Amino acid sequence: MNSKQYDVVHYPALVSQESENDSKNLNLEVAMEMSNRGDPKLVSVTKGHPGNTCEENNVGEIDGFHKVHHEELEHENDCPKEEDEESDFDQDLDDHENREEAWAEANAFEKAVLTVQFGCIAGYQFIKKATHGYFLKLVFLAVFAAYFIAAMVHKFGDEGSHRLLGCTLLGLLIWGFPYLEQFVVWMLRKCYGSKRLSERHSVLWGKTKVVIRWLLYIAMTAVMLYFIIEEGRKNRSNLRSLPGIGIFILVALLCSSKPSKVPWQTIFWSVAMQFVCAVIIMKWSFGRDAFMYIQDRFTEFFDNAKAGSKLLFGETYNDHAMAFGAFPLLLFINAAFTVLYYTGAMQFIIRVIGKTLRFVLGVTSVEATTVAVSIFMEGAATIMLLRPFVNKMSKSQLFLLVTACMSSLGGGFVGFMSAFGISLEYLIPAMLISAPATFAISKVMVPETRDIEEEDAEQTYSLMDDEKKKYMNIFDAAQSGALVMLPILITAAVVTYTFFSWVSWINDTLTWFGDRVGIEDLSIELISSYLLYPVALAMGVDLEDCRRVAMLMGYRLGTYNVIAFIKLIEMRGNKFQYLQYMAATNFTGTITKHRDDITLDSWNMTLTNGFISERSEIITIYCLSGFSSCLAAALLTSILATMVPKRKKYINGMAISAVLAGHLSNCMTGCFASLFY
């Protein structure tokens, strides 16, 4: 077989001088004749001709030059003709030729039906043209407006009416925000008289920004000191986590690739944003009540997935809660997120968060969007969404991308964890507070070393608008969202099963080796409980719980955070058993402690790994709300390396650093949870 490849040369003149069918045959004959003569320039005008739809004559891009295989061209006549996308039943009746053909073949009754059809089509097109394509949207808005007015008149003042009013206002804001933004920009330019500031005004604005920046530094520092002092007066033990914030930043600085290039302005405002988010969510009663309300609404929404589990697996699906309850919930949630993308709601939320991060932290649009997207989407989905920018990203931006994927859970896994019994009251705030920490740690470890030309912000955000164009309608969006999540669900199930079994085998092996030298019950838990003890202590965890929390962090780093959460839930069950035991014995029951295990003497029951206090549990949830593990690093870097093969060496080399950065980001979040407990 002759595998010689030929360069493609297009001769449009040949195409333009002949009719469609004749030009196809002529071009093919010219190409075959030149091929038989051994001409290195293989003429392939048929590939460029709009009438030639044969997909078997592939043109592959090799080393930047378009080439085509000789043998494929020889079999061009054998290529199957591309069938019409629509069947006879679905042909467009609006097409003039189809109308005439249908009318000529129809009898009297069919002509009457066709008359009605043609009339409806003509009427719809006239209305659509008159409304500039917004006819269906206007109909929907009219129907909803009528329903909204009727609902407000019928009953107003209860929680349901407030929810309807809030959702309606939010929908109007999402729909009208781009127009409002354009109007404000237009007004400012109209008032100023130019799109750009004059040289004199630019200098004045630069000096003003410096003054404003320092005033904001002073004001923010004063606010943080006030709340820290106030918190210390109420509960001094909470201040134990305050040095931990500095310690984790110092660890990142010691691992920095270029300490002299660290953007300390970004670091300061990252920590300040974490502080403000923590105060609003954990100390401000309105913010706390708002998140409790959001938690209740999410819980109501997630409960609808139980109907699907009951349908597929029966009423007893809870006997296998993870396989038949938690895992299918991922499909349901991702379908909902895809619908939100289709409607534009998710784009609005990400735009708001991204622009806020960009304005406050002084980062680029790509970096702000990266962190904003990672709050709501899983790591692999975040990378795929930003794939047009991956080739242009600097080393610092690539590191930030992987770190952002490591330090967040994503919307689907939030529901997954809530199905286990982890409260959304802690999971949702944890993801929001971790977002600024991602910048604080990643920009210290891998700072930007060259000037990055700022890209157009709207061009960056338009990536998310492209997501809407992938789907025909809302049903296609929901179905596609669920199917896209299927490989991730299978991966999560396989990894959980494999690593849980693997950990059991490793523990048995370590125990055997430990017995040989007189060390009892040597295991991963025991080793990690000592290695990561200082980390738990720096987060302000209660001293008696530090080894157990360190053990959970070891599970997350070495294997998968799902396994760490499973162990945490087991500890919660142990605590429930302990309280039942003490209540049954009127708080006179005796217990025996052996390392981390607790034995209930009267019941002869051993609580493996014991339990931790409520405070330590909350800090742990905040700390574990991220995917910073060796497994996640392998998956994410492999995806990135496939997309950018020329930078594979750097991407694979930063895997362990990204795990450390993601873990430090989550630990900083744990510090704030401890500070404002």
From TrEMBL:
Keywords: Cell membrane, Membrane, Transmembrane, Transmembrane helix. Residues 426-673 form the Concentrative nucleoside transporter C-terminal domain. It comes from the Eukaryota. Residues 244-315 form the Concentrative nucleoside transporter N-terminal domain. Its main location: membrane. Pfam families: Nucleos_tra2_C (PF07662), Nucleos_tra2_N (PF01773). InterPro entries: C_nuclsd_transpt, CNT_C_dom, CNT_N_dom. It is found in: Cell membrane. Belongs to the concentrative nucleoside transporter (CNT) (TC 2.A.41) family. This is Sodium/nucleoside cotransporter. It comes from Elysia chlorotica (Eastern emerald elysia).
